[in-house]
Amino acid sequence: MSVTSEEVNYLIWRYLQESGKEVTALALQEESRVLEFDHRFGEHIPIGALVSFVQKGILYTESELLVRYDRDIAPVDVEHSARDFNLVQALEIDSDRVPQIRGKHRFELADESSVSSNHNGVSEELVNGTRVSESLSGDSSKFIKTLHETLKLPQSSVSRWNPTNGLVLAYGGTSAAATIVNFSQQNPGSLTIDQEFKCQHPSTSTFEGSSCITCLEWSPNGRSLATGIESGEVRLWTIDGKLQNVFQFHKSCITTIKWNQDSIHFLTCDTDDVATVWNSLTGTALQQFSPKETGMLESLGVDAEWVGPDKFVIPGAQGSIMLCEMGESRPLGKLNGHTKTLTAFDYQPDTKMLVTASDDKTLRVWRSGNLNSSNCFVGNSQSVTSAMWLDEDRIISTSIDGTMRVWSQSINSLLGLSMVDEVPIFCGSLSPDKQKFAVGKMDGEISLYHTEKILEVIRNTPQAHLPASIPVDGDYQPNTEGNCITDLAWDSSSTYLSISYSASETAVVYVG
């Protein structure tokens, strides 16, 4: 006999609706999966189910007073039988049977009490208010591999590997220029530069400080490179650095470029939160959205995502998400749930689910055809900086609070957590084969995780001891201090990682 938290949530939600507390019911609906239960079981559950179950529980507790453990009739309890038996009395009886759990070593120093162990050989560590379990077996596989750069390139703010040619890398920095580099590889981990092509935006004094490449993305077929600069201009280049087209509509810094899978259309967003859909062949702007309200200074978001061949999502006002369609002048709908700037989107095409992250410290999962989020993950103490699907169920995320976390949308819970040194994490990047996950920290250090080991640790951790403590597999440290990571990018074979820094050269690291 068992009952899940989701089933309890559903009964409470039904009770709130039946008693007319619609606002409270709506809040619970957004924080849980009650709509899914209602669709499956709603017609089979009668009105007043929660009250009925509570009354039966009270009756069962009262009946326990009449029968002893050996099935003999117990003496009449005059105190309880003289009163009308109610919920409070039932709870008092249970509390008398179960001794109160008193705090042990309540006044220990924080660093002494942060780690404890239980009789199952599992240590428990408190991280940001979350108790994390870790095996005490002394596993030798916790050795952290030191990663070294294969080569270095000039300083850049962003870099991207060609998705179809693993030996082609584009990076962009100052001087309004992006560079396409062709490598040759004699042996694994050994790269040499064969050719370089410079993709130059025109220098202009119209916009102060408008010479930096802020965004670049390869088309899915690897034939075209879109680059955006601080002035708002977007240009399209061939793989050998020839100019294909110029796109001029934005008036502020380009923050996002997202290609459609057809390699023809792409979406751009700027710091004024203007989103534009382009036809790369004709150079024309097909549609434009500007959801920002007049006078609003706060950024709505720094990401966008295609959620189908002709649909996409962009940040909206007050943490909302606008669902748009190519050819439609107005958004199809609005997804409400987040309350602050949106930081990351990732779409899972097989399940048609979207995960979003925000400065409100939460992640949310949205299902196709539903305007309410099916999951809301809380626990981070600072902004969430990245969120990606590991598979059809699990999500991996990073946060400014210095944690990497793994979540499950099916059971709506935190599965694993890693915090190495509490340094803020600025970005996270999942390799194309989804076998490696790299996080970039404020101090310039890279931590590498193998997803198969992450899932193995979670599988081997009893559910009662989740979230599991996730071990770090690799580490890379730059030679310079005071150097923040601005971007991470994997090559198509998931063996090389390029790292862009705020004040030093771009590093290319061989992961293997």
Walk me through this protein's architecture.
By secondary structure, the chain is mainly β. It has two domains: 5-97, Mitochondrial Import Receptor Subunit Tom20, Chain A (Up-down Bundle), CATH 1.20.960.30; 145-203 and 303-510, 7 Propeller (Methylamine Dehydrogenase, Chain H), CATH 2.130.10. It contains eight helices and 37 strands. The strands form nine sheets. Strands 4-34-32-31-30 form a five-stranded mixed sheet. The longest helix is centred in the first third of the chain and has 16 residues, at 49-64. The two termini are 49 Å apart. It comes from Lachancea nothofagi CBS 11611. One of its GO terms (biological process) is regulation of transcription by RNA polymerase II. WD repeats lie at residues 213-240, 247-288, 335-366, 377-408.
